[in-house]
């Protein structure tokens, strides 16, 4: 801050250049990596699960995190962006993932911070941080349950008003493996009753609340009016937009992901989750989860695959 003891005049070139320049700042305290860019936008990534637990742009928090979320590595985080890999939901019977917990092990394993790179542009600087998880770094239990050799690199890029994440899956073993992957994003919204979702019209979905009934979305502006848990499959459009009170609030843009899950637990489910607080929090959150979950993705020996999302905060 510049203190003025006299009447302000025009700032001379010398004065302007001697003002401290805002910079990209990244800090790592061995449990969390925090980045700030000159616009003031910030992101926080917990090494546990490489879970993004905060993203602020234009002074506004964009992600919902439960007040009762465990951030100490004892349980996957209820909120932010947990990474779901290599299985989505409860694992199917008689499958290579059958012994894994719901949503796999990536969200409850400790990832490594691999470092940052920055880039300067006329409009604003940005920073990319990479996180890695390898089969060798898994718990003995997870290794036993899913004995494949793999490497995951998760890149989180913060730019003014935007957060991009890309996940690369590498097969480092001698046999191919199948996996699901999903970015379980909890968006913070003002009020679910005045929020709509566009970009899903005409897409077929599996309704997990209605015994996996298959339907086709007939709403161009979908309103959430009760417990919702749907897997929208093979979307034609890359962008799903969350609209608040008629104004676009978030664009969620998929890159190489085929599907999108829309989830809101509503009253009863929220009551049943010990780590969901406040119990009325479902009013202020909406999960728009991009992923490839309706069908398995396969990577053969030596192959890699990558996909990601860009979320644009439109306020
Ligand atoms: O409680 P968890 O394991 O974090 O899962 C939360 C929800 O995650 C969603 O992705 C699933 O579609 C839901 O079925 C599930 O209830």
The outline comes out as: globular
| Largest sheet entry | 9 strands, antiparallel
Which ligands are bound?
Answer: 6-O-phosphono-beta-D-glucopyranose
Distance between the termini: 25 Å
Rounded mean pLDDT score: 93
Q: Report the sheet-strand fraction.
A: 35-45%
Low-confidence stretches: 1-17
Number of strands: 22
Looking across the biggest beta sheet, what order are the strands in?
Answer: 7-8-9-10-22-19-18-13-16
CATH class: Mainly Beta
Fraction of residues in helix: under 10%
The CATH architecture can be named as Distorted Sandwich
Q: Can you write the helix and strand succession as a string?
A: HEEEEEEEEHEEEEEEEEEEEEHEE
Number of spatially distinct domains: 1
Question: Total helix count?
Answer: 3
* Estimated structural class: mainly beta
Rg to the nearest angstrom? 21 Å
CATH topology: Beta-galactosidase, Chain A, domain 5
Organism: Patellaria atrata CBS 101060
GO biological process, one term: carbohydrate metabolic process
Family: Belongs to the glucose-6-phosphate 1-epimerase family.
GO molecular function, one term: glucose-6-phosphate 1-epimerase activity
């Amino acid at each position: 801050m510049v203190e003025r003891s006299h009447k302000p005049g025009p700032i001379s070139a010398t004065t302007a250049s001697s003002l401290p320049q805002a910079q990209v700042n990244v800090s790592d305290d061995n449990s969390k990596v925090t980045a700030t860019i000159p616009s003031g936008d910030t992101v926080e990534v917990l090494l546990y699960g490489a879970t993004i637990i905060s993203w602020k742009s234009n002074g506004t928090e964009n992600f919902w995190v439960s007040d009762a979320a465990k951030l100490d590595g004892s349980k996957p985080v209820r909120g932010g962006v947990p990474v779901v890999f290599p299985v989505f939901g409860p694992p199917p019977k008689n499958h290579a993932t059958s012994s894994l917990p719901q949503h796999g092990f990536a969200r409850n394993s400790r990832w490594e911070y691999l470092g940052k790179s920055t880039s300067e542009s006329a409009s604003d600087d940005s920073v990319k941080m990479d996180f890695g998880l390898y089969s060798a770094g898994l718990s003995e239990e997870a290794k036993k349950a899913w004995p494949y050799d793999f490497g995951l690199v998760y890149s989180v890029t913060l730019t003014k008003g935007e957060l991009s994440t890309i996940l690369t899956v590498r097969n480092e073993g001698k046999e191919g493996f199948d996996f699901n992957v999903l970015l379980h994003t909890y968006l913070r919204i003002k009020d679910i009753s005045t929020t709509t979702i566009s970009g899903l019209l005409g897409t077929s979905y599996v309704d997990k609340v209605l015994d996996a009934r298959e339907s086709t979305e007939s709403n161009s502006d979908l309103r959430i009016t009760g417990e919702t848990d749907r897997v929208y499959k093979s979307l034609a459009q890359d962008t799903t937009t969350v609209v608040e009170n008629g104004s676009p609030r978030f664009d969620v843009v998929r890159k190489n992901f085929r599907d999108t899950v829309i989830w809101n637990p509503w009253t009863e489910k929220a009551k049943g989750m010990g780590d969901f607080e406040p119990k009325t929090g479902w009013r202020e959150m909406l999960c728009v989860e991009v992923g490839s979950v309706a069908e398995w993705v396969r990577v053969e020996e030596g192959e890699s695959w990558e996909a990601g999302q860009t979320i644009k905060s439109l306020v």
